[in-house]
Amino acid sequence: MAIKALRGMRDLLPPLSEKYRTFLSRASQLAENYGFGYIETPIVEESLLFTRSVGESSDIVGKEMYEFVDKGGHRVALRPEGTAGVVRAFIEQKLDRQGGVHRFFYHGPMFRYERPQRGRFREFHQFGVESFGEKSVYEDASIILLAREIVESFGIGYTLKINSLGCPRCMGPYRQRLVEFLSVQEGLCPDCQRRRLTNPIRVLDCKEESCQEIYREAPKLLENLCDQCAKEFRELQEILDTEGLRYEVDPHLVRGLDYYTGSAFEFVSGDLGAQNAIVGGGRYDNLVELLGGRPTPAVGFAIGIERILELFELPPRERRGYYIGTLLPEGLRPALHLATQIRRREVGHLEVKVKSLRAHLKGADKLNLRYAVIIGEDELRKGSVWIKDLEKKEEWRAPLEKVVSEL
RNA sequence: GUGGGUGUAGCUCAGGUGGUUAGAGCACCAGAUUGUGGCUCUGGGGGUCGCCGGUUCGAGUCCGGUCAUCCACCCCA
Fold first, then answer.
1. What does the angle CA A74 – CA A77 – CA A81 come to, to the nearest 5 degrees?
2. Nucleic strand B near CB of residue A330 (< 7 Å)
3. How many Å apart are A305 CA and B12 C1'?
């Protein structure tokens, strides 16, 4: 039995790899326009980093981490998400003490040991941004606008959902009230009975009709925000309004990771099946402190690259480059020499099999190359080549040395 | 972790009720009067029928197991 890639892990090769790189370069460019600098952090980190930041209770840490003990006896894990590592680096580089605003973008593989399905893999890739040190809700808005810019630049349709998760001042008491409410309810579905203990906020998201019936009476987070949080959430909406960004306030939008506070948002697509989130993000003002840094407000998002790649097509590639071939064995040396020179500046496909002109043209056409440069008997004798523009259907002859100089 | 669907050529798939050398389309390679591409035509290469076991004179086809994959739940990017 041949060795295959592990379950939920895929190879990336053309033509998909081309799409992948196109996405990355455009997203990176936009992030740079917004003042973000590229950061790379290790794929493997101490397990503790993720259990602390993502949260013990989350599925990601509870059962989805690729975790092992390395040869030095350290408990390490493949990163299940990108934020924790960036925050760790931010603190380790003492940027929290330096003050000011620091903005980073990153991309790379993430790992979660889950059952694969459409849009969900064990190794997947994210493009993310993180902004540190800016408390203003205008930063939240800027980040949402950056995500919008990226998504729209590929012509992708989406729905933006936003919510506020409040701050410790309002979330703590709210959670308390919700737990009290839940503790006296009868007839919750098994899932909700479990969530009631592990992650009470999540019950509001339950798809069971009977549960939703019950939750109609439950205390609402948005009605329990403190004045500050309520004001900021209102302001965020006003900013999005002025920027012409349509959104839905979704009180059930609860980001899955424990570290979120304040505004939360998600871009979802209707064309992806069950895993429909393409961008997820929000504010996490407590995380830096939680991981041992100076208290620093922060906000960011992550884009699921595999998911977003499903939602757009690249325009067809235009014809370009040179095909170099020969009709007789003696032509191979000059053909190789010519190809080598062309390749310094342009795409040059050298066909090393001697074949008929017809076959060469077929090959050049199939490879979507613009010019066929052929060395036949006459050309070999005269030190020239025969060139055909496959697009304009024009053909001519040129001295060997002039081909390159006229590129 | 739970449920359902699917595993036959590189890809998409045909192969009633078991029965000779397992097929098609696409892709690939070669050719269609001598040095002219996309269309068309002809030919060619390529298959442990996922794997293991069972039933049977005989299994791609029936049964069991196993693995893989897809979709959904859960959760999330």
1. 150
2. no
3. 27
- The structure's pTM equals 0.91
Q: Quote the ipTM score.
A: 0.86
Write the DSSP symbol of residue A5: P
DSSP for A170-193?
A: HHHHHHHHHHHHHHT-----HHHH
- Final residue before a domain boundary, out of A309, A339, A369: A309
Domain with A342 in it: what CATH number? 3.40.50.800
Of A286, A309, A332, the position where a domain reaches its end is: A309
Domain that holds residue A346: 322-405
| Structural contact between residues A324 and A379, judged by C-beta atoms closer than 8 angstroms | no
Dihedral pair phi/psi, residue A267, rounded to 5°: -100, 120
Nucleotides of B under 7 A from a protein CB: 1-3, 28-32, 35-38, 48, 68-77
Structural domains counted in chain A: 2
Same domain, A304 and A361: no
Q: At what angle do helices A137-153 and A16-33 cross, to 10 degrees?
A: 150
pLDDT in tens, chain A (407 residues): 578 888 999 999 888 999 999 999 999 999 999 999 999 999 999 999 999 988 777 777 777 899 999 999 999 999 999 999 999 999 999 999 999 999 999 999 999 999 999 999 999 999 999 999 999 999 999 999 999 999 999 999 999 999 998 888 888 788 888 888 877 777 777 667 777 776 777 777 666 667 777 777 778 888 888 899 999 999 999 999 999 999 999 888 877 677 788 999 999 998 888 889 999 999 999 999 999 999 999 999 999 999 999 999 888 888 999 999 999 999 999 999 999 999 999 999 999 999 999 999 999 999 999 999 999 999 999 999 999 999 999 999 999 888 888 77
